[in-house]
Design brief:
229 residues, globular
């Protein structure tokens, strides 16, 4: 049996300083993982377990010029630490969780906030708010051998004005805790992307805005918003 049409190619993330790229498998995102961000969104902090939403592969974008999406009047930035899985893992013990990480990068989880707010009010899914084409903007990866997760600063500016500024030590659920828990729900696989949550200071962007994100020790992330469709 032959395919009726060619399958869409999988997005690939470049690895900084190397002539290799990592094909993306799935995208998992952790919600409300900084206390201050949960409060600014008017939400209670989840303390029983992390919770997640997902994005499609069409959301992956490698920075630079970013198309502004349709269907929103309130498009928000959420800057985050991102990890990419390099080995299969199911029910991974927390003490071994970092062993399955291939690398790290900075990322933007872009959100149609107006659609998300309406969905929350009606207790409906967030899919159209979070799963946006070009709404998962990622910088080049750094392998685990070249960067160690500690308490690095995470910082985003829009048009050179600081919007988000925190440290990775402020994560409610640590990266090992996230991996251990998520691996009880899915068998994690090479190329899985996990966005670990955003600090406070999220806000709207406009066409022409220039976003610059930095996590100490990782390649910076730059994006310029395109015109409204």
């Amino acid at each position: 049996m032959t395919d009726a049409f060619a399958a869409a190619p999988r997005p690939r993330l470049p690895v900084a300083g190397r002539e290799v790229a990592v094909p993306v498998n799935r995208i998992f995102c952790v919600g409300r993982n900084y206390n201050a961000h949960a409060k600014e969104m008017g939400a209670e902090v989840e303390r029983d377990a992390p919770f997640y939403f997902t994005k499609s592969l069409s959301a992956v974008h490698l920075g630079g010029d970013v198309p502004f999406p349709s269907g929103t009047d309130e498009y928000h930035h959420e800057f985050e630490l991102v990890l990419v899985v390099g080995r299969h893992g199911s029910r991974v013990p927390e003490v071994d969780a970092l062993d399955i990480v291939y690398g790290w990068c900075a990322g933007l989880d872009m959100t149609r906030r107006d659609l998300q707010s309406r969905a929350k009010e009606r207790r409906l899914p967030w899919d159209t708010a979070k799963d946006v084409e070009a709404g998962c903007i990622l910088a080049p990866l750094v392998p685990t051998s070249a960067w160690t997760l500690e308490n690095q600063r995470i910082h985003l500016t829009v048009n050179d004005e600081t919007r988000q500024d925190a440290t990775l030590g402020e994560l409610i659920w640590s990266v090992p805790e996230i991996i251990a828990h998520l691996s009880t729900l899915y068998t994690l696989a090479p190329g899985d992307v996990i966005m670990t949550g955003t600090p406070a200071g999220v806000g709207a962007v406009q066409p022409g805005d220039v976003l610059k994100g930095q996590i100490d020790g990782l390649p910076s992330l730059g994006a310029r918003m395109g015109p409204r469709p």
